[in-house]
Every structure is written in structure tokens, then in C-alpha cells.
Amino acid sequence: MSQHPTTYVPKSAFGKWFESRLPIASLVHSSFIAFPVPRNLTYFWTFGAILVFMLVAQIVTGVFLAMYYTPNASMAFQSVEHIMRDVNYGWLLRYLHANGASMFFVAVYIHIFRNFYYGSYKAPREVLYILGVIIFILMMATAFMGYVLPWGQMSFWGATVITNLFSAIPVVGETIVSFLWGGYSVGNPTLNRFFSLHFLLPFMIFGVVILHVWALHVPGQNNPTGIPIKSGKDAVPFTPYATIKDIFAVVVFMIFFAWWVFYIPNYLGHADNYIPANPAVTPAHIVPEWYFLPFYAILRAIPDKLGGVIAMFSAILVWFLMPWLDTSKVRSTAYRPQYKFFFWVFVAVCVLLGWLGSKPAEGWYVIVSQIATAYYFIHFLVVLPLLGLFERPLPLPNSILESVMGVQKGGAGIPVGANAEPQSKG
Amino acid sequence: MMKRTLLIAAALLGLSAPAFAAGETPVPPQLSWTFQGPFGKFDRAQLQRGFKVYREVCASCHSLSYVAFRNLSQPGGPEFSEAQVRALAAEYKVQDGPNDAGDMFERPGRAADRFPAPFPNENAAAAANGGKAPPDLSLMAKARTYERGFPWFILDVFRQYSENGADYLVALLNGYHEPPAGFQVPEGGHYNEYFPGHIIAMPKPISDGQVEYPKDANGQAQAPETVDQYARDITAFLTWTAEPHLEARKRLGFQVMLFLIALSVLLYFTKKKIWARVGGEVEGHATPPMTHNP
Q1: Pick from A88, A144, B64, B69: CA 20 to 30 A from residue A105's CA?
Q2: How far is B52 from chain A (nearest CA, A)?
């Protein structure tokens, strides 16, 4: 994070002494104070800060919950009720943590779709983007294991359904499932290892977040125009401009968060999870948390078990290829009129898949799931590669400053390719 | 903004997930509760009546394992006096031990004890109740719900509707009727309009006039001694047992909201003032990044 020239000069004698031994002050200065930020960022760019806040909030509430929680199949449910009833502000800690997971996903989905819309995944930010996808996968694993810990009916049966997916893998599938379970069914060993991993993974996320922020500081932030910073006039220093904006956005997000925690704390959960886990009784509908529903719909759309598992994992793995699947040289969808249409269709398909994931896999729901799943992959594998070759993008502004100030200088800015002709690859 | 709205809609879309199998089950009517909304509080007299219904009717089959006698005198609940709670607890026999001789013994209950279960274990409960143990009631008001469907589940977020479990319980307790013509009720089952599948193991638990309510100055019962009123009172009580800190939660929530809104207003104007410096020329240019893309 220190490749930017910093104007930081330690003032005190101690500062100078320390700086020559560990230049952390100048690192912070160059990364979070002097760091140039495009001046035209919208509030969609505050979700990075919101996500850091959510990660820290989850770790802090989680560490305190772990002081009271008992990861044992015969005591877990009871210990959660102990937290809810007897621990001072235990109800607050648990509702913050449980709803915090959902808020984390609300923020990450906005962050991801912002990245899709403004082409932030394209060169030179591929590594930054791939690290983000890795964080998302780690988040999903962490959230899944966290939902198992209260050991209610949906915890138990959700764990059974999801871990069973791995049995679809040929030859080694059954062995993998036994390792996940620590036995021949979901039970106490499963709960123990999930608790251990649920505690570990957030710190791994934290590590990848540091890499993600580091990778962000090399090319700098993308912005609504998608064109890079060309002069100092296009940018403002991170502090105080981005700092105050991020703090404001975090506090507004906290209001949204508080609404769920204090007024409808169980809305995002399942009633069945207030029934203790019972291996002898299967709930009528086993449904994952809302943030997994689109992927769950893709899983169930394929009639074959292994095929469904492959489709579900591919739905995320295809994200890794996005920087190379998208052939358009224009980053921001604001200048891609045709892609804008496809982008919103894609958003609608994701919402539709989420709704289908909450419905039973029967009747016409299955057919619609299959069509939506097919379109999901068509978006990545057909629309993204082909559209970039045929689309006529709108003219880009000459600079961020020009786009902000609305300066019109004769022509219409930088032509893309040979004056708005269809692009050719390469 | 539109994207955000859509994403939130996406976030909410999955939540209509039903806890029960779909069927020809009618939607429970939405009732008015004193504990609903941002300033909701329990009605103490109602909780005390509900507790009486639990004690005289439900407790013969259903445990209430997560609730201690002492909870009955805590703020935000039925708020019996501590002396009342001590006297109440003493009426129960609680197993304790082993003592110095290594024997288990029975002693009168204390305020710190949890409600003793009516059966020694789940198998005994099942054996005495036609093969299925009656569920514990501590969390019942949060462990049951009904499907809301589109668009209600979205509106529920804004109007803070979280009494779906309570509405379902009242409907269920009122839902015992003669089965419609041609509907076969198997032996040991009972017809209930609101129970998913309509066959419930629990027989009609309560009838009009079964529980005597406290009298007011005129010798009139405090509330009607009807099944519907019993159902509402026991449900209010079970909402409290499921969520004993509901009042504290909503009270703290209001304070947190006020604080956050005031803070966000201050931050908004601070942000505006700072950004006002960014006119045509940025004061103190930022250094452009060294790495450039094509």
C-alpha cells in the first residue's frame, strides 16, 4: 500500500525515531489520508467501508457470544436461550450477530452489483476483483456454519442437506461427507467442527480483506465514468473527503441495521429454528437463509444431483472468469446502452432465482428455475463476450473533472476505438 | 437507488418461506396486540391472566422449561411481586440432590427454579399423550408462523409485523370445529381449521368458562371468560415467555434510532461542508496513482 509518494514527514523526535524503524505512520498516511480518490464517486462506493464495519461488528459480537455459547449437540440450543434470557444484553448481542450476517450480505450484494455495473472487475483490477470473490465464498461458508450453531430444526436439516451435496462427487464423495460430519450423520462432531471453523474463517476473511484493500491501492478506485484519474484535478485526498462520506454512509447503514435488530429481529430467520434439532422429524420445507436462495434455486433446477451441485458451484466460479469474458473496453455501463439493458435483465433474473429458491421444487417452479438458470449462465458465457464486440458505446468524457463539471469542448470526448465504431477484440 | 431497491427486494423475496406444508389452510386473522409496533408493551393484567390459563390448563401436558419462577417478577413481564413468586414457587415440588447421603430428594420450589415439566422425560410425555410428546411452550410464539406471501412479506418489514406466531396461535386455539362433510379424521387426531393438514394430535384444550378470571370491584370478571379471550391471553403470555426482553428491546431501539438519526444529520452537514471546498479546483490536489491502466 506504500507505492504512492507520501508527503508525510514525522514531526516529533519519537516520530522520526519510530519511522526509521517501522514506517507504519507513513503507510497509513499514504493509504488512508493522502490516497487520491476520484472526486465523482457516488454512495455506491461507500459499501467497502460499510463491509469493513460489518466484518468488525460480526467479529466483536461473535467473540462475546462465544463466551456464553456451548458447542455441544445436547446443550447448544439451551445455551442460546441462556444468552437470550439470562445474559445481560445477551439478546442484543445475538440479534446483532444474527441480523448482522444478513446486513453483511445486503452490503456485499450491493458492492458486487456495483462492481458489475461499473466494470470494476476489468483490467487493471482483476486481482482485486478475484480477491473479492474469494472473500464472498469465505463469507458464504462462514454464514452457513454460523446458522448451524443454534442447533434448531433448520440448523440441523440445512446442515444435512448442504453437506449431503458433497456426496454427489464421484468416488470420494461419501468419504468427504463423513469427514465433514465427523461420523455417519450430522451430529455432535459436526457441530464442534463447524463452531471451530466458524470462529476461524472470519479471521481468514480479515486477511483476504487486507489483500483486497492492498490490491485496491495499486490501481486506485474505479469510478462512475470508468476512466482513470489523469490529473490531480480528477481526485481528492482520501481524508477528509472519502473519510467523512464513508462515516456518514456507515451511520445511515446502522439505522437500517437497527430497524431489523430492534423491531423485527426474527423476520430474517426461520420459525422452525426455534424448535430444537430433532433428527427424527424433517421440517416440511428446508429452506436456506435468503442470501443463499438464488444459488439454491440453481442447485434444484437441475434434475441430476451431481449436475445440480456442479451448476451451483459454477454459478459462483464463473465470476472468476468475468474479467476475461467481458470483451468490452468500456468499463462503465453508463456508456454502454445495450449492456445496460442486459445488466438489469440479469439483476431481475437473480431476484427471480432468489424467489424460486424459497419455493418448493415442484410444478412450474422447476421449469422457471431451469429457464432462469440457463439465462444466468447465458449472461456470463454469451452476452458478456459477444456484446462487447458488437456494441456501440457512447462517447466517454475526456476526464473525470469534465464529467463532473459538464465541460463541453467541441467534440464529444475520447472516441472509443475509431470514433464509436463497433469494437473489435484485441 | 433503483438498483438498491431491487437488491433489497431480492433480499426480501426469499423470506416467504413457509414453515409448514401448503394446503387449504386459511390465513389467521391479524389481531391487535398491545406489544406490537415500536412502542409496544405487554399488558400486565393480560400476562397474569395468560399465566393463570397456562397453569390451570396447558401445564398439565406442556412444559415451560426455559422460564424460571423469578422471571415472573422481572420488569417487562407479568410483574408479580417477589413475595407472590416465592409463594407460587413453594407450591411446586422440585427434585434436587444428591444430598450428603447420595440420595435425590424433593423440596419446595424456589424463585430461581425453572418450571418443572409435567412428565419426567419425553418418552413418558409421548406415552401419556397418544404417542407424541406435547411440545415445550417457552418458545412457541416464535416457533410457529404462517406463510405471508407476496407482497405482504415486503410490507411487513415496514410495518414491523412480527406477531405472526401470536396470530397463528390464537387462530389455532379457536380453530377446533366439526370436520367438513366427507373429511376423514383418523383415530387419535382432531380436526383444526388452522393446523396445517387439519389433523392435530392435541384435543380441544379449553372451553368457555373453564378458567375463572379475577373479579373487578363490581364482581365482574376482568375479561370475558371465553375461548377467544383465553386464547389471546395465553398467547400474550407465551409471547412474553418467548421474548422476555421485548419491552427492553423496543425501548433501547427507540433510543438507538434517535441517536443514530441525530448523528447522521450532523455527519451529513459535516460532509456537505467539507465537500463544499471541492469546487472547480480541488484544494490541495491529490497525487494521481502511479500505476495506470491502458
Answers
A1: A88
A2: 22
